[in-house]
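Collaborator request, handled under Task 6.
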Amino acid sequence: MTGGFRAWWNGQPSDAVRRARAERLAEPKPWSRDAQAARCPVTEKRLEWTETSMRWCVREFGLEAARRPVAAPGPGFVPAGWNGSEKQVRALVGWVCGVMDVDPESFSVEFFRTPEGEPSRRRHAIGRYRRVGGRNIVELDLREVGDPERLAGVVAHELGHKRLLGEPRRQRLPAEGEEMTDLVTVYLGMGVFTANGARRFTRAAQGWSALPLGDLTDEMLSASTREGRSTVGYLTETELGFALACRCRLRGETEPPAWAGSLHPGPRAALLQGLRYLSARRQDRT
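Structure tokens returned to the collaborator:
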């Protein structure tokens, strides 16, 4: 009878069994932070795209833009008694301009109203960007301005178009134009609103449920509503959360910033996991 088998037969694990057990116990569990730190929240392809696009933003807008504060909903975000009037909406547009470093005089704000009889299953735009005769125009649907936080995300996306397409660029835009527009809102400080707009909670027949809303294509308008659901942009909440983590790293931040508490659970989890992954990767390289 071998020593290992004899130990097992007598109820005492062998040295090899003890070592294997210790190694298993030392391994990070799937639910532990150590395990999460070893895994990027996005795929390798999206990781490469995000970091390449962030470097593009650094070259195009400057690192100082990433060091500006990140905007988040909270006290003073909108005045009390929000009713979505044109005056209030224009004030909100001006606030987003201040965050994204956009000259309010460099574009026009126009309004339209989707007819009340519009079929509920038909997709329609709630925000549009156009460039006509050298003029930059942002159009907003007055029927969809009841939620100022969502509206801020819509405005940010359209101003992202304005910054990418309505200004002279030193280098060629990446091929993924709509996705790049989302990323620009993150880089220029409006990422919390864009990330929160990537998924909306809705009341289902059996209770509350979360509906992923990442099914828009490049041929569809960027900010739209359909069947009572809404979405802002093209990147998923996980991709946006990781992009926020990359922006934090550009600022030298390794811990979750205060504004992380304003994120919805999905993008907040991606942000935290992204920070852990980027920190672990940096340590591995040093």
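The cover message to the collaborator said: "Confidence is low (pLDDT under 50) at residues 4-9, 201-230. The radius of gyration is 24 Å. Please let us know whether this matches your experimental observations."
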